[in-house]
Hints:
- The chain has 14 helices and nine strands.
- By secondary structure, it is an alpha+beta fold.
Amino acid sequence: MSAERLRLLRRQVGGLTPTARKDDAVIPTRAQRQTAPGAAASAPRALPRDAVAQSAQPGSVDAASAPRPQAATPAMTRRALQAPVAAAPARDSSAFAWVDHDVRHKPAGAAVDAAARVPPVRATPAAPTSIPAPQRRTDIAGLRKMIGLRERAVSAHTPVRAASTDRHLPGNEIAPGLHLIDAFLPQPIPHQALSLAFAKREDAVDPMNLLFFDTETTGLAGGTGTRAFMIGVADWYTDTTQGSGLRVRQLMMSTMAAESAMLDLFRSWLSPQTVLSSYNGRCYDAPLLKTRYRLARRGDPISALDHVDLLFPTRRRYRGTWENCKLATIERQLLRVVREDDLPGSEAPAAWLSYLRGGSARNLRRVAEHNHQDVVTLSLLMQRLVAADAQDREVIPLLDAP
DNA sequence: TGTATACATCTGCCTCATCC
DNA sequence: GGATGAGGCAGATGTATACA
């Protein structure tokens, strides 16, 4: 944790932590040093002094525990509420229906920052509850006004840019805004259980239970703000007409509202016997999907399933062999797969957001191809790891033999 | 940028062998 | 018998690295 963040947290809790007091004791103000050297140790600095003053007041518990912005006077509250409302007519609010989420919060965030800088004298313990009732009603009315404005903007949803003519998405639209892309790659299915010794496990997995998966998301930051707009899976499957092969299915959202349908359909592809396999999915994709299920008020079907992550066995085996252990590198070096016109994963969020704003679907189709190749590569990589480990086990006894 | 994992390193504790 | 040091082990900690 940075010192700056620590200071911010201290301000938020009112500077009452033991650490804060200790710091306060050892860094007296210049005036305190000059006027009362002996008393300097007990005289806190300006900001914590305010907090200490709060704690000394009746009802200080409320004041200390209340978020600082609330204590920053009605003037700040009004400013935070009024700024977006006033600014909205000056711009094409509907054009920023989705993007505006971040932008619109900046005035409020700035107000919070400003509140944190409000001179201590203004942040009295009574501030949170001292707002007159009519004023609170005004604030609520202001909030309702903002909500109405926002809802109208979302419903209008006109794109930022001139609408692109290239809006074709691959696959079939199986639900409003949800596209299913199907593919089948004829190939022999491993005929025996795949040993998981390469992953330091003693068991084996039935190939028919394996489900390779990979997501494309709106960002890497994690947390609740990031969502998966595409889920790709691959499994070995015997089709009545096409025979045996690798079945690749991808779900792609073209609207925010399609997320619930996508999560429901993905759940239907899982069974209690399913063994998930991914590349760093245990740390990234799975937690992300679990969060999305939770936010959608749906039970999380992932936690109960077995999960074999290929990243760590790959890293163990190939660390130092190539420049890194990214999936693309492993794919190129180990599997000799060369992608044509591949869109880097880091550009996937921009491709999707651009499409949402009315842009071309071309890059989104490239994201789908990238995701398709990822899950196919996972199936190849696992077979390669199993084979390499089996080979090691054959060689090592020969080396140990006298 | 957040998160989970593997791996390397550090630390403390215990056991054992050696020396005085 | 007590003091000391080497070695092994487990747990804690820090770092690197994938993911879009």
